[in-house]
Write a structure and sequence with these properties.
The protein is an alpha/beta fold. Helices cover about 40% and strands about 10% of the residues. The protein has helices at about 5-10, 25-35, 60-70, 80-95, 110-130, 135-140, 155-165, 210-220, 275-285, 315-350, 370-380, 410-425, 430; strands spanning about 105-110, 145-150, 175, 195-200, 225-230, 255-260, 270-275, 350-355, 360-365, 390, 395-400. The strands form 2 sheets. A 7-stranded mixed β-sheet has the order 1-7-6-5-4-2-3. Helix 3 packs antiparallel against helix 10 (about 315-350). It is globular, with a radius of gyration of 23 Å. The chain starts with a helix and ends with a helix.
């Protein structure tokens, strides 16, 4: 039996009857390592290209462990001043490096799904408040319907967030995109009030960024709130050579991104930013007699869906303090350079690159769908690197995502050698280039 299948089959040893008696902690940890470690995916490795997933910088992992040892429920400043203060500093630094308005409110959440949800909850509050409606108090029954426009290439987690907010996954207006998946501003229809337009910075397949500045100009004409789903692409703003791709993003009203993607901190760590701090606080804040909420300092729980929450800001502060502005820019630019090299070498070998490689995403087709799928499966089974498959505008492709701080030139060359060797078994250069 191949090692991977053996490791997966071995997981059955975890599924024992619930024990009646305690067992030594070191034995429990030994079992976890012996059985669990072989069945884990090397997502933190330097040659994992299957998703837009970072590899946890050492300082981020260590800070994560330290924060876990502190075990702070980072909710209120008066209870956990250390982690609350670190979070506040980290948010200020993030607004600086991402070139967002300095007076925005921010929130640490689990990931982009929760970040989209949090920011869009603020949007829902703000646009209905303009109509004289308090949605947190009175719900959506009887409220003026909110018109929502999204890209045809909107990520499903954005649609999930809209569904959770009662705005509907299917009732949205889907705006046409160009060949790279960018929303076409001139295709945004007239929307009834109140309205929200959801844009995207970093298409999950192509890396393409919507022209947010032009979309914001259109939104001003119709009085709409503009939200940016920038799960990974928003980090391009931190790299001087790539910042032009996010031009106009600062004109939006809210933003969502992940730190566990390109910032390379451990899962789960997402970020929501909202220009109207009062709208975010109105959508999220709660109080109770037993909670010491009164403080002249920022209470993290006033800006997030959760009350109980881990201190995510600690690892983000640690990475930003460690990398600095130039180190963060280098991380983003270096991984994009690796992506361009993948595309150049695969194209030179005769294989079709389906996207303009501007960020860290590469789509490559090895001919027909069946051949491409077989090559992907063989690359995954070979084990040197791991890439996933996708369908882009009707064409099956292998998707290469380069996000890890640990990926080196040698990793790219080693991975390319395997890709080209396996692809060469299935298709000739002439066939692949058709």
């Amino acid at each position: 039996m191949p090692p991977a299948r053996y490791a997966i089959a071995n997981l059955i040893h975890f599924d024992q009857p619930f024990p009646n008696q305690p067992i030594a902690p070191e034995i429990v940890l030994q079992l976890l390592d012996k059985i669990g470690s072989p069945a884990s995916m090397a997502m933190a490795g330097s040659r994992f290209f299957g998703m837009v997933t970072g590899g946890s910088l050492p300082v981020a992992l260590a800070a994560n462990w330290l924060a876990a040892a502190w075990d702070q429920n980072s909710v209120l400043y008066r209870i956990t001043p250390g982690t609350a203060f670190l979070e506040q500093v980290a948010l200020r630094w993030l607004l600086d490096v991402l070139h967002l308005p300095s007076d925005c409110a921010g929130a640490f959440v689990t990931g982009a799904t929760a970040a989209n949800f949090t920011a869009l909850a603020a949007a829902r509050h703000a646009v209905l408040k303009r109509e004289g409606w308090n949605v947190e108090a009175d719900g959506l029954f009887g409220a003026t319907p909110i018109a929502v426009a999204v890209s045809e290439e909107a990520h499903p987690t954005l649609l999930k967030a809209l569904g959770l907010l009662g705005l509907g996954r299917n009732r949205v207006v889907k705006v046409p995109v160009d060949s790279q998946g960018r929303m076409r501003p001139n295709a945004i229809p007239a929307l009834t009030h109140p309205a929200i337009i959801c844009t995207q910075v970093g298409n999950v397949n192509t890396g393409a960024c919507d022209p947010v500045g032009e979309i914001c100009d259109r939104a001003k004409e119709i009085g709409a709130w503009v939200h940016v789903d920038g799960a990974f692409g928003l980090w391009a703003a931190a790299a001087p050579s790539l910042a032009h791709l996010t031009a106009g993003v600062e004109e939006a009203d809210s933003w969502a991104t992940d730190a566990h993607k390109w910032l390379n901190v451990p899962h789960d760590c997402g970020l929501a930013f909202v220009r109207d701090a009062k709208a975010l606080q109105a959508a999220m804040a709660i109080t109770a007699d037993y909670l010491p909420t009164v403080s002249d300092r920022r209470n993290p729980s006033d800006y997030t869906p959760e009350l109980s929450r881990r201190a995510r800001g600690v690892e983000v502060w640690a990475v930003l303090r460690s990398l600095g502005r130039s180190g963060l820019a280098d991380l983003i630019e270096r991984t994009c350079r690796h992506a361009r090299h993948f595309a150049q070498e695969l194209k030179a070998a005769g294989y079709k690159i389906l996207n303009d490689v501007q960020l860290n995403q590469v789509l490559v087709s090895f001919g027909d769908a069946e051949t491409t799928q077989r090559i992907i499966a063989d690359i995954q089974a070979e084990g040197t690197c791991w890439c996933g498959g996708t369908i882009w505008q009707g064409q099956t492709a292998m998707r290469i995502c380069v996000s890890s701080w640990a990926t080196t030139d040698a990793d790219v060359e080693k991975s390319l050698a395997v890709m080209l060797r396996i692809a060469g078994k299935y298709c000739s250069r002439e066939l692949a280039s058709v």
